[in-house]
Every structure is written in structure tokens, then in C-alpha cells.
Design goal:
The complex is a heterodimer.
Chain A lengths: L16 H9 L3 H8 L8 H13 L3 H9 L8 H14 L5 H8 L5 H14 L3 H7 L8 H19 L5 H10 L3 H5 L3 H25 L4 H45 L1 H5 L2
Helix pairs in contact in A: 1-2, 2-3, 3-4, 4-5, 5-6, 5-7, 7-8, 7-9, 7-13, 9-13, 10-13, 12-13
Chain B lengths: L1 H6 L1 H10 L3 H16 L4 H18 L2 H8 L9 H17 L3 H5 L2 H4 L4 H13 L3 H12 L8 H9 L7 H7 L3 H7 L3 H23 L3 H55 L1
Helix pairs in contact in B: 3-4, 4-5, 5-6, 9-10, 9-15, 10-11, 12-13, 13-14, 14-15
The chains are: A mainly alpha, B mainly alpha.
């Protein structure tokens, strides 16, 4: 018979819902987990959501995602589970499955749905999907406005502005050692490369003038200078590649943040 | 008994964590928190919090136990109860590795029991406050009267690690091996001396040979790595010593006090 355990009568979570919230708000999340996983409660959709919520608070994202996904559409907690589940999935690197669930959603949080779909599109590197999702942006909801503006900024920077070219950096360093690093945003490294290669070049020149080109005292610093010069060209190429990767990672972090943070204001 | 309380606490708690009773401690902690949440009176609230801290202690969650005790309303306790709570809080902080915070409670926790003296001496030793620790340790071993191993304990304290000053290390590191010697890294100091000497010799030899550019620029590059690297290394050694020495000293003190206790028990 439902609602009856081997030990006796089970109770609904409703009685302890406020207590669970109190535990979470007071950073007693392990206590909250102990409570909500207690076998004394009747298994309901609310209980599944609250368990997911506690796991989410404990940053157990995989468990939270699975529990949020198990909340049925009929549940009063479905919207919250859907949008938090999307944010959690995005943090776990799963960008595809939440898109399907979001697209099926047709409730009152249409703009939030657009924001999350736009964020997922940026994470999937899909500009077409972003443009489609961004049609839902109104820029007037205080809870979502900052995220919408941030997504637009990232979209423009990623797809409408020219990115730094590793080949241009290599060419700049071939022309003036260190210039490619300065182009990559590493001014200190660029100047120090210029000074180092300049110094070894000057040492080579001094020995060339005094000892001749075939003397080992010229050849040795000359070789060192050549290795440093070529290494600097390669280093500049890599610096710009790393810069581009870092920029994309930073943008993705900003997207994840903005997929997540508005939820706190929307579902107060 | 004393040893059991302070030296085997971790083992006991780990056992508790994996025992079948561990689940009960967790449930009990939740139920005690429910008492607090339900708006119980001051006395009941304090009793619940102290009980809850005890549950966390049994579970090996010392930081949680300590933070639970920090919620106890001390003004509602008698002086004796207050001391007991603060002693427990100090113990939990010590077990969670928060030595500096634990040492801030010593004065209020009192020193009227032998357990408290032992705890204070360990907390202060792990915090690097060796002189204060020595006083409590000496009182601890002399609790039942004069202890014949007291001189051994005092001698042990004489060899406590010296606090190393970052500014002294920095000043000494301008003369290459001295900074390393100050940090007790003699082999590394000699290596640093060799490298800096070689760089200086390179400069002098080139200048004497008329290779001004090579001497100044090449020597500058070499010294930049050997000389400046020497200073950075010394600063890192000071930080490492200051972080590790009190822990190593505290571990040795724990073993020594345990040994002295055993001795006393056998006597």
C-alpha cells in the first residue's frame, strides 16, 4: 500500500519543508541531505525536487541533474527543476539534452527559456541557434537584462569581431623579436624577449667584429641567438593561440554564470 | 585515559564514522537542530547545540562540531559550563587543524584540568607559540607532583624551531650563500655560491679580455637568473619553514608527552 513503510506510516515532506529550507539557508546542507533522504517520507514529486535541490546546494551536480530531470511536467516544481537542471547540465558540459527539454517547455518563463537557449547556443558554438533564441530577449526584465546584454557582447566579440591571428603574431616577432608577444597582450614578456635576443645578438656582433665569423666565440652566441629568435617566433604564435583559447574559456565561464545567476532572481 | 581522549580521538572517530551507529549520529544531529529551529528556550537550545556538536565529533566532522559550539549562547551558561564548552570548542578546532583559532580560546577555556593543560600545550606548539606551550606542558607533566622527566621536556623545548624573518632572509640573500645558510639549506647555498661565482667570473674574464658587450650583457643575463633566483628561493624557504616547522615540532611534542604519560602511568 502506498505511503506505508515496513516500519509503519510514512509522512509527507510538506511538514518538514520549512525545516529543510532552514537547514539549507543556515549552511547545514549535510543535515538537510540526511533529512530528505530519510525513508520516513512518502515518495512524491516534491520530495524528488527537494532532494535535487539539496544535492544542487551541496554541489553534487550529477545527482542534482538526474533528480531535477526526474521531476514530471505536472509538478508545481517543474519550471524550477527544468531551468536549474539546464544550468546544472551546462556546468557538467552537457549542452544538447537540456535544449530538447527547453524547446518542449511552453510555460510562463518564455524569456528565461530564451536566455538559457541562447547561453547553450554560445556554449555549443552555434551562432544560428543563438540568433534564433535571442529573439526572446526583451532587455526589460531586471532579472534577465544583464545576462542578455552579456550574451550579446560575447556573440559580437566571438562572431562579429576579428580575432587575433597567430600567424600575424609570428610575422610580427620575425620582424621585431617580442612584438608578437606584445600583440598577444603579454607586454612584459615581449619586452624581455626583445632585450634578451638583443643582448645575445649584440654579444654575437661583438665577437664577429673582434674574432671573425668562423671563431667559436662568434658561432656559439650566434647559435644561441638563432635558437632564441626562432623560439620567440614560435612562442608568439602559441601565445596568440593560447590567448584565443583563454578568451573562449573566459567567455564560456561568463555564459555559464549568466545561465545560472538569473535563476536566483526569477525563482526567489 | 588521558591518552585515549587526546591521542586516539581520530581513530575512535574514524571507527564511529564507519560503524553502524554512524547513521544514528547523523539523525541525532538533525533532530537536535530541529529543537533549535522549533524555537526552544535558551537552555534547551544550548543543550541541543552542545549535543549536536558531540554528534559531529563522533562523526569526525570536527570543523562542523566547532562551528556548532560557536552558536551556543555562552551568556546563558554558568562559568563552569562556559569553560567546558570553550574547552570542547578548542579541542574541535585543534582536531580540525585550525590551530591559530584554537589558541585564541585558551585564555577563556581555563586551565583547571589536566586535559586542558595538555590541549593548550599542543595547540600552542602547533601554532608556533613555543614559550607559552612550554609552560602548559611543564604544568601538565608535573600535575601529580614533581616529574623526573621534566628536564627532558625542557631540553626538548630548547630545541624548538626558530622563527625565520623574511626580511632578514632577504637581506642575507644579497650575499648568495648566507640566505640559504640562514634557512638551513647548506648544500643548496653552496650550489648557489658556485653559480653566482661562475657568473661573476664570466663578467670579469670578458671585461679583462676587452669584450665589454659580452661581459656586461651576458653577465647581466646570467646574474639575473642566478642572483635574483637566489632571492626568490630564499623567500620561498622562509615561508616553507614557517608553515612546516610548528607542525613537525607539535608532532614530536605529542609523541614525547604520550611517552611521558605512559611512564607516569607505569610508575
Amino acid at each position: 500500500m502506498p505511503g506505508i513503510s515496513a516500519q509503519g506510516l510514512k509522512k509527507p515532506l510538506g511538514e518538514d519543508f520549512e525545516f529543510v529550507n532552514y537547514l539549507i539557508e543556515n549552511d547545514l546542507k549535510l543535515d538537510a541531505r540526511k533529512l530528505v533522504w530519510s525513508p520516513e517520507y512518502i515518495e512524491t514529486d516534491s520530495l524528488v525536487f527537494v532532494r535535487g535541490w539539496v544535492e544542487y546546494q551541496l554541489k553534487e551536480l550529477e545527482r542534482a541533474r538526474d533528480l531535477f530531470a526526474a521531476v514530471p511536467q505536472e509538478s508545481a516544481f517543474y519550471p524550477k527543476a527544468l531551468f536549474y537542471g539546464t544550468a546544472v547540465s551546462a556546468h557538467l558540459g552537457d549542452y544538447d539534452s537540456p535544449v530538447q527539454r527547453l524547446e518542449q517547455y511552453s510555460g510562463p518563463y518564455a524569456e528565461l527559456k530564451g536566455v538559457q537557449l541562447a547561453g547553450l547556443a554560445l556554449l555549443r558554438d552555434d551562432p544560428e541557434a543563438f540568433r534564433s533564441a535571442a529573439r526572446a530577449f526583451s532587455y526589460s526584465d531586471y532579472a534577465l537584462c544583464a545576462a542578455e546584454q552579456e550574451f550579446d557582447k560575447i556573440y559580437k566579440s566571438r562572431y562579429e569581431s576579428r580575432q587575433k591571428s597567430p600567424l600575424l603574431a609570428a610575422a610580427a616577432s620575425a620582424l621585431v623579436p617580442g612584438l608578437g608577444k606584445i600583440y598577444a597582450g603579454k607586454t612584459g614578456e615581449g619586452i624581455s624577449s626583445l632585450l634578451l635576443i638583443g643582448a645575445t645578438g649584440a654579444i654575437t656582433a661583438e665577437h664577429w667584429i673582434k674574432d671573425g665569423i668562423s671563431d667559436w666565440k662568434t658561432i656559439l652566441p650566434g647559435l644561441i641567438t638563432a635558437v632564441l629568435y626562432i623560439g620567440n617566433i614560435y612562442g608568439s604564435y602559441m601565445s596568440v593561440s593560447i590567448y584565443n583559447t583563454d578568451l573562449k574559456n573566459a567567455q564560456n565561464t561568463a555564459v555559464l554564470y549568466n545561465v545560472h545567476i538569473p535563476l536566483r532572481s526569477v525563482f526567489k | 585515559m588521558l591518552k585515549t581522549r587526546l591521542f586516539c580521538i581520530m581513530c575512535i572517530s574514524l571507527c564511529a564514522l564507519y560503524s553502524s551507529r554512524a547513521q544514528d549520529w547523523e539523525s541525532m544531529a538533525v533532530e537536535l537542530e530541529r529543537t533549535v529551529w522549533s524555537g526552544a528556550g535558551l537552555e534547551e537550545t544550548n543543550t541541543a547545540l552542545i549535543g549536536k556538536a558531540g554528534c559531529y565529533f563522533q562523526l569526525g566532522r570536527y570543523a562542523d562540531a566547532s562551528s556548532t559550539l560557536s552558536r551556543v549562547r555562552l551568556f546563558a551558561l554558568t562559568p563552569e559550563e562556559r569553560q567546558e564548552v570553550l574547552y570542547k570548542q578548542e579541542l574541535y578546532m585543534f582536531l580540525s587543524g585550525d590551530f591559530q583559532q584554537a589558541s585564541s580560546l585558551i585564555e577563556e577555556a581555563g586551565d583547571e584540568t589536566r586535559d586542558a593543560l595538555l590541549l593548550h600545550s599542543l595547540v600552542l606548539a602547533y601554532s608556533g607559540k613555543y614559550d607559552e606551550s612550554e609552560i602548559y606542558a611543564a604544568r601538565f607533566v608535573s600535575w601529580d607532583g614533581p616529574c623526573e622527566r621534566l628536564p627532558e621536556l625542557l631540553k626538548f623545548y630548547e630545541g624548538h624551531p626558530r622563527h625565520r624573518s623574511a626580511s632578514t632572509a632577504m637581506a642575507l640573500s644579497f650575499v648568495p650563500p648566507l640566505g640559504h645558510f640562514y634557512n638551513g639549506a647548506y648544500g643548496e647555498g653552496l650550489l648557489s655560491l658556485g653559480l653566482n661565482g661562475a657568473a661573476a667570473a664570466f663578467v670579469v674574464a670578458n671585461l679583462l679580455g676587452g669584450y665589454w658587450v659580452t661581459g656586461i650583457l651576458g653577465g647581466g643575463i646570467m646574474l639575473n637568473y642566478t642572483f635574483m633566483g637566489n632571492q626568490e628561493r630564499n623567500a620561498a624557504l622562509v615561508r616553507r619553514h614557517d608553515a612546516n616547522d610548528p607542525i613537525a615540532f607539535g608532532d614530536s611534542l605529542r609523541v614525547l608527552l604520550s611517552d611521558i604519560c605512559n611512564n607516569c602511568a607505569n610508575d
